[in-house]
Design a protein that fits this description.
Layout: E1 7-8, E2 16-18, H1 20-27, E3 33-34, H2 37-49, E4 51-57, E5 62-64, E6 79-81, E7 87-90, H3 92-101, H4 106-110, H5 114-127, E8 133-139, E9 142-147, H6 156-167, E10 181-183, E11 188-190, E12 202-204, E13 209-224, E14 230-241, E15 249-256, E16 258-259, E17 265-276, H7 282-299, H8 303-314, H9 321-330, H10 335-349, H11 356-367, H12 373-391
Parallel strand pairs: 7-9
Antiparallel strand pairs: 1-11, 2-17, 3-12, 4-8, 5-6, 6-7, 8-9, 10-11, 12-13, 13-14, 14-15, 15-17, 16-17
Helix pairs in contact: 2-6, 6-7, 8-12, 9-10, 10-11, 11-12
């Protein structure tokens, strides 16, 4: 296995701090953490092997509760009766989906005795739902998901398999791997930090999968740190999916400067996301769009990024402060905001703002100080437009 020395990193005030992976890392219990893509694939494939789906008539569903409950627990027992006499036990998730299909408030129904809920759901399914069929996804007598009949299920195992095609086991045998760790004391990033239950970024539950991988042995130099050392970035991506309908399939690609021990991503730039809802044609869209997009990004060259940075640094658009203000005003910025961008850019780049690169750095730095999400995104998008235009 390769061994790569730690890299000096910094400039985290450039780009953004992304907490998506950190939220996953914080929320996952031990049984949802995996040390390799192979282990994760085996877990989701084992679930699929005992699962099946079927369509049933909405009016054919029966909601069954104990007629004469003897304990408090039995006032919360509910089963779903199917045509032919079989029954299923709904999970917390699938019960919520059933309530959604019946246009009923799941949170309220969870507080009621199941005897009342059974009658209410039967009535709502019969008279409030206009669509004739329901698609059920079940395993071992448990109802995993209840969706509309046109729900296009993209299986978690298929998504993991697509990631494995570009990353192998995700543990370092290939270039794409679970990320290393940032040492805040020395401001160095170690790509060879071991994968443990505490450091992994490979997660799966009975509801979803989430995988975050980086190419952190092959840094890309995009500028200089204040010390004069190279400003390094790494390519990264994450993929998430839910075969039971709790979220869309998402593929996000980006560049980052480091990932720390609680898996906040620092200095993120160039974020792009592909999202595929589980609609009727979702499985074919996964094959036609997401898998090729992942392979293209994973196997692609970093020359485009480097070329874009160099073009932006070379693209001089102002000779003095007056021309700089005029340029920013032409981008729709107020005079006050334009002055703030110029001041911030000069502080960031240690020189007066004159190039597209300077203005983009100033815009993104100002955006980080804005608490309103919509206003912040508007300024970040303006910075991206500047870079995209000069790189085209």
């Amino acid at each position: 296995m390769q061994s790569t020395p730690a890299f000096k990193v910094g400039n985290f005030d450039k780009g953004t701090a992304d907490h998506t992976v950190s939220r996953q890392w914080l929320a996952r219990p031990a049984d949802q953490r995996f040390l390799s893509l192979g282990d994760l694939r085996d877990a989701v494939d084992a679930r699929r092997a005992v699962s099946s789906e079927r369509k049933v008539m909405t009016k054919g569903l029966e909601f069954i509760a104990p007629e004469t409950p003897q304990t408090i627990e039995q006032t919360h027992d509910l089963q779903i009766g199917l045509p032919g006499g079989s029954v299923l036990n709904p999970s917390h998730w699938s019960f919520g989906q059933l309530c959604g299909l019946a246009k009923a408030p799941a949170a309220h129904y969870r507080e009621l005795p199941s005897q009342i809920v059974a009658d209410a759901l039967a009535y709502r399914m019969r008279y409030a739902r206009e669509i004739d069929d329901v698609k059920l996804y079940e395993a071992g007598g448990d109802l995993l998901a209840a969706t509309g009949p046109d729900y296009g299920r993209i299986f978690d195992g298929e998504v993991v398999a697509a990631v494995m095609q570009v990353a192998g086991n995700g543990t370092g045998e290939e270039r794409w791997k679970v990320p290393g760790l940032l040492d805040w004391a020395t401001m160095t990033y170690d790509p060879e930090a071991p994968v443990t239950a505490q450091t992994t970024t490979l997660f799966a539950s009975d509801r979803d999968v989430f995988m975050f991988l980086v190419d952190d042995r092959n840094p890309i130099e995009v500028g200089k740190l204040p010390s004069g050392e190279p400003d390094l970035m790494f390519r990264g991506f994450y993929v998430t999916n839910s075969e039971v309908g709790s979220g869309a399939l998402k593929l996000a690609t980006f560049y980052l400067r480091a990932s720390c021990c609680n898996r906040i991503l620092w200095g993120v730039e160039g974020f792009e996301e592909l999202s595929i809802r589980h609609s009727k044609f979702a499985p074919s869209r996964f094959i036609e769009q997401a898998r090729p997009a992942l392979a293209s990004y994973a196997n692609g060259s970093v020359e485009k990024l480097i070329e874009g940075v160099n073009k932006a640094k070379a693209a001089k658009v102002a000779a003095d402060d007056d021309e700089a203000l005029t340029f920013l005003a032409g981008r729709g910025l107020s005079r006050k905001l334009a002055a703030q961008v110029m001041e911030t850019a000069e502080r960031e780049e240690q020189r007066p703002a004159r190039t597209v690169w300077d203005f983009a750095q100033g815009l993104t730095a100002v955006a980080r100080t804005i608490p309103n999400t919509d206003a912040r995104l508007e300024i970040e998008n303006e910075a991206r437009k500047l870079l995209d235009k000069v790189a085209a």
